[in-house]
Amino acid sequence: MASEIMVFSQNDERIIFWITWIFLITQYPQKAMDKYLLKLNISRDYVMYGYIIFMLLFGVVLWRLFRIRRFFVMKNVLIGLQGFFLFHLFLFAAWLGTLLLFHTLFPRSLPHWISSALGIALFYLATFLGGCWIGHKNKRLTFLWCVIGVITLYYKITLGLASFQARDMSFVIASLIVCMAGAVVGKRYLKIQPVQ
């Protein structure tokens, strides 16, 4: 039996859910809504506050449903994908922080090839760690959730699939391979620590 190398608490699920949910709330589709609000002559502030309140309440209801055993599978899928995106978000922030720190400490910017190499390395590290989390949370249909995670991430980065080209396929395939490698590690080596 494979030895377990990392331990997660069930409390991590709640933290991951709410961090990602609050980040989702901040992605208010302002441009898409403005053209409709102008036609209806409705204040943007009222709609935005209503959106925030609705999403917070919906998050509370959704989390309470996920605590019911029959919804555990759905919870694991969502938490797995949320963790996948959080790894990318945090390591992207680390990349930006490194560039900012270097620019602050030294009179010139970090050479382009170094910043690019660092960004690519952190991206694939985040993809691997995110795959670990997906595999840890989902023992079935892991490949499907990895595909959904990678495609959604690509969509978010490029802001659409309309510009998809053949050269982008190598990026998607490489990301999927790294994600699946992480998922295998996550299935075999990660475990949940019960809440005391």
From TrEMBL:
Keywords: Membrane, Transmembrane, Transmembrane helix. The chain crosses the membrane at residues 48-66, 78-101, 113-134, 141-157, 169-190. This is Uncharacterized protein.
